[in-house]
Amino acid sequence: MKRSQEVSLDRYRRAVAACAVMNLRQASRVVTAFFDDALRPSGLRATQLNILMAIEVGAPPTITGLAEVLAMDRTTMTRNLALLRGQGLIARDEVALTTKGRRAAARAMPYWEGAQALVVEALGGARWSALLSELAATRAAVRSRRTRARRSRLRRAAAPGSASAPRRADPARAAQRR
Questions:
Q1: Domain contains 111
Q2: Per the domain annotation, does 89 fall within a domain?
């Protein structure tokens, strides 16, 4: 193996080991699978119960508002709501639980509570509280960076001379074209 390939592989291994996306998604998939298994007798998946619970506790009654609360993109939320509506768990004309949806969530809660207790017990109360704080800090930091990056891109796009900036009439050029 060439020296440059060794350096690339070593660099790649370090990046993978420290990658925020990979590590957070791995943890998320493991926890989601654990909750899905626990919730299986209720007929709901963890992601479905999260949506039902968010609606019931007063998330904004719009698709966009609910997507923001659950940190999902609007398209994914629309698809998930369509599935829940198809099962009769969410009202057809608004973002609200039906009676059937409330019953399904209530039936799932004991399973969720059991899984939640096992996770908290496995980590310990102090570590669980610390993890919640760290996750909140991570969400806030990344959202802040995304917002600043988005604003920066918009400012650059609107800057005079940029490819996407609106063109202003140049009187000298207009005179040359005549």
A1: yes
A2: yes
Burial 75-112 (b: 16+ CB within 10 A, else e): eebeebbeebbeeebbeeeebebbeebeebbeebeebb
- Tally the domains of the chain: 1
User: DSSP assignment, residue 173?
Assistant: H
Question: What confidence score (pLDDT) does residue 178 get?
Answer: 44
Question: Which residue, 106, 112, 47, 109, is CA-closest to 81?
Answer: 47
- pTM score of the predicted model: 0.75
Containing structural domain, residue 59: 43-143
Query: Rounded CA gap, 81 and 5, in Å?
Result: 47
How far apart are the C-alpha atoms of 80 and 101, rounded to whole Å?
14
- pLDDT tens-digit profile of 48-92? 999 999 999 987 888 999 999 999 999 999 999 999 999 999 999
- Whose tokens are 């980590």? That residue is 123
- Give 97's strand partners: 90
User: 86: domain CATH number?
Assistant: 1.10.10.10
Helices (H) and strands (E) in the chain, counts: 8, 0
Whether 94 is in a domain gets the answer yes
Q: Is residue 29 part of a domain?
A: no
